[in-house]
Every structure is written in C-alpha cells, then in structure tokens.
Amino acid sequence: MTPSATNVTSPSIGSLDIEFDHHGLFNALVANMAELLETIAGVEDACVYVSSIAARLGADIEKQYKTALGTQNLNRNQLIEVLIDLKNRAGGNFSLIEQDEDRVVFGNGACPLGKAAANHPSLCMLTSNIFGRMAANTVGYAAVDLEQTIARGAPGCRVVLHLKRTELGPDTREYFRDDASPASA
Predict the structure, then answer these.
(1) Residue 103's beta-bridge partner residues?
(2) Most buried residue, 23, 94, 153, 166, by CB count within 10 Å?
(3) Cα-flanking dihedrals φ and ψ of residue 30, to 5°?
(4) Edge-to-edge strand order for the sheet containing 173-176?
C-alpha cells in the first residue's frame, strides 16, 4: 500500500534551523575529545597531551610568521604582535593589557575554541604552550600563568607571559628555547 499524499509541504532540509555547521562540527569534536581525555586520563595528563599537540602546531605557526616577516628571529615587539594576531585570526579577542621588561599581560574576551573550551581547562594548554614556546624561542626563556580563563568560567582570559625567570606559581608553566637545555637558558 502506498502512503497517501497530503497537501502539506515539508520545508526544505537545507533551510531547517539547525545549529550545526563547520564551526559546530569543530566545537563538538574538540569539546568531546577534551571531555573524553580529561575523564579517562585526568585533567593534568590531558594538559600534557594538548601541550604536545600545541608544540607541533606552534612550531608551524612560528615558522609561517617568520617566513612571512622575512626573519629568522622575532624581536620582542614582533613577538607580542604575532601572539595577538594569531589568536585573533583563530577567533579570539586578544589584546595587550600591560607590559614591562619582565612580563607581558594579555587579555582575551573570546576563546578561539568557542563553546568547546567551556569546562575544559586542558584546552588552555594551546595558548600556554604556543605563547610560552614562541616567547622562549625569542628571548630564551618564558613562563606562562593563565590567571583567568574562559574555560574555568571567567568572563575573559588574563594571560601573563613572564620573559625572565620568576617564582613559579602552582599553575605556572616554564618554557625554554627549542635549541637550549633548561640549564643553558
């Protein structure tokens, strides 16, 4: 028996109000991967895993900026501009809050990972690792404090990039120039 045809027209599937596109796919994928990793391995091990991914990603990003700028080494001003630019290109809203000889403080009002970062602090290792490694490659040493993060429920992020050795807080992460051992930095 054939279903009877009705006069009701169905809306076009493509015009349905579904909150899913390539950004939705990306957010869902990242959030679910972070959730799974943090649940199975714990937040600290998830941070190590994300840091490893960020190290590879950061090395590629750093190379691209250096090539585009026609330099082998970034100076401090270029470093600050590059860090802000790369995060904003990725969808963040980073800006320079303050700086002195020893540190640079960045603010951010929008996470590049969007909703995926909510309650997944391990994903903040992307920022910590990329900022830390690029700064260490520029000046020899860096430490990163993620004082406030959207992932931990703050309305924005406050990232402190230390360019000289400092007393380490419990969540401070140190970075050294790629070609130097910790003893020689």
Answers:
(1) 162
(2) 94
(3) -65, -45
(4) 94-99, 103-108, 157-162, 141-148, 173-176
